[in-house]
Amino acid sequence: MARILSAVAWPYANGPRHIGHVAGFGVPSDVFSRYMRMAGHDVLMVSGTDEHGTPILVQAEQEGVTPQQLADRYNRVIVEDLAALGLSYDLFTRTTTLNHHAVAQEMFRTVHRNGYMVERTTMGAISPSTGRTLPDRYIEGTCPICGYDGARGDQCDSCGNQLDAIDLVKPRSRVDGEVPTFVESSHFFLDLPAFVEALGQWLRTRTAWRPNVLKFSLNLLDDVRPRAMTRDIDWGIPVPLPGWEENPGKRLYVWFDAVIGYLSASIEWARRTGDDEAWRSWWNDTDALAYYFMGKDNITFHSQIWPAELLGYAGRGSRGGEPGIYGELNLPTEVVSSEFLNVEGKQLSTSRGVVIHVRDFLARYQPDALRYYLSIAGPESQDVDFTWSEFYRRTNDELVAGWGNLVNRTASMVAASFGEIPAPGVRTPRDEELLAATTSAYGRVGDLIGAHRQRQALGEAMRVVGEANRYVSDTEPWKLKTDPDRQATVLHTLTQAVADLNRLLAPFLPHSAQQVHQTLGGTGAFSPQPRIDEVTDLDDPSRRYPVITGDYTDVPGWAPEPVVPGTPVGKPTPIFRKLDEAGIAEELARLTDG
Q1: What gap in Å lies between CA 415 and CA 494, rounded to an integer?
Q2: Of these four, 108, 468, 517, 583, which has the most CB atoms within 10 Å of its CB?
């Protein structure tokens, strides 16, 4: 058994999340975590809402509310949506807790004490009309290196190079299109060049990463410069140094504190369990494994910035140093980055109305239908296009007519002929062939999920669903009424196959897995779901907020378990809803109306 940290990207709390977000960080991390729990590993899955930075400040002013009020509103929306999708977090929290502030400040102080936070005077971008500092990511222009028109002030997504906003050709504000003014300002910079050797040594051992992620991460080392870790802004975590902490206009960079959330959430989870040090089993034990899930636009922060923070905290850069109170913290085992999901041939964009919010989707469709589509056709290794016609086709042809029909036919025949799972007689080679197929699939499907090849894993499971449907056609159990022993053997074999397939599909389809379990006469929790708890801030009794958590200890194993003859099976109800194709036009109209 291994301890596995599932570190899931932190959604930004300035609005509801859309299906592109959960395609990148949500569904892949949950499939992986659910499988690893079933395989017997001790999983800690953490995340929360990222609530600092200029975008929330700007939006709050536009709406006439405080930044905290805006963050509170969307924190709750995001919590409700992710829980409804079935994402099995041990703790989904937020970055405005005092616990997170304390952890982020401890990280900063120690990295600074070890000599890796360097004070510099830099040229910061200011909005001429408001006088507010514009963060690097809120400035766009032409990349001075490759000429890409759409580079951001911190990096170019086309060539992958790190940039400074002042270097952009024809820079403009993403807020209002203004040309920014650049003024001098003092800030602390993370001395990334001091970690080039350590980062390079670490990355070159990451041979199991997706090739595009590893290549991009290694290329980042070719142009490494110090990076600002503080900002001129009054919304965020104070800089924990004398002369800075009291300055209301200086705060930690949102991306410095956001990635620390993986650690602070683990510490909050431990404190809430009553064992304050429990988090160390996932962070200080070198045998523990850590997998970070996100979209490709966040690779830089997870394969360079966060590892550099961890190395700096441990004193493992070129200047040496000593770890702080958290000790030497584990580097990521793997950065699992997905590509982008487009919609109907267009890039997802809330501002342009090209968006499908998770909440709206789940109001009209079953959560497992979305999980299935994002797993079988999602942006695992390349950008992909979500289309409503393909979603309807896969739901109707694969979920309803394939898997759902197999479950319904099996339960219906068992209920009609025996009312319970029958005891088998002597099996034929055809019977054994089906059971061999389902049994052998555990190894293949599990290995593929563990290697983050979930599309192929789900495809393999659905291939065996097809074999089980062919078995029904070959054996025609409804014609075996005059041979009850043979009918009992066929239906027992088929029930066993369906039970096995339900385990194989449970990480992908946790809601329906529970229904299938109950359809076959099972009782108790088969596929535990997350819950929303209202909690009090551990360090501020005046604040309450919702978290996602759950008890996932009682899960089935990742191996066949014999079905029990005599278990009652009643007449089933359909597991999946067939979709009326008239709905495609309605969805396209919604997308157009935006």
Answers
A1: 13
A2: 108
